[in-house]
Amino acid sequence: MTTTAKKVGPVLRGLDDRIVDAVIEAVQADNPNAEVEVDDRGGYVRVTCDRECRLTRASLEDALDEEFTLAQLEPALSGFAGRMRYVSDDEIVWFLERED
Predict the structure, then answer these.
(1) What is an example of a GO molecular function annotated in this UniProt entry (predicted)?
(2) What is the number of structural domains in the chain?
(3) 30-79 pLDDT, tens per residue?
(4) Does 100 map to a domain?
(5) pTM of the entire structure?
(6) Which of 41, 55, 70, 87 gives 20 to 30 Å between its CA and that of 20?
(7) b (16+ CB within 10 A) / e for 10-49
(8) Domain at 18, CATH number
(9) Which residues are within 8 A (CB) of 29 and not within 5 positions of it... i.e. 6 or more apart?
(10) Could you write out the DSSP letters of every residue in 59-89?
């Protein structure tokens, strides 16, 4: 029996394309062993990984080539899949708490 993996990660809207692209690049860098899926619905962009998705400030700043805090993403974080915790000001982790 095949099971569908649970996806977790941020849902972004209201950001310019450069920042959305940087978030995608940073999530790919921070989750090297995961398949990162991007679902662009025009009004919002969903970025997900299976079961756990990390986003670090360092990877985001590398992708943007400028300073950028994770708190600057909060106004555009219209939602997310899974549970979210700030590990620090430098990292956000979305995770799947349990399996169904």
Answers:
(1) monooxygenase activity
(2) 1
(3) 999 999 999 999 889 999 999 999 999 999 999 999 999 998 988 888 88
(4) no
(5) 0.88
(6) 87
(7) bbbbebeeebbebbbbbbbbbbeebebeeeeeeebbbbbb
(8) 3.90.56.10
(9) 59, 62, 63
(10) HHHHHHTS---GGGGGGGEEEEESEEEEEET
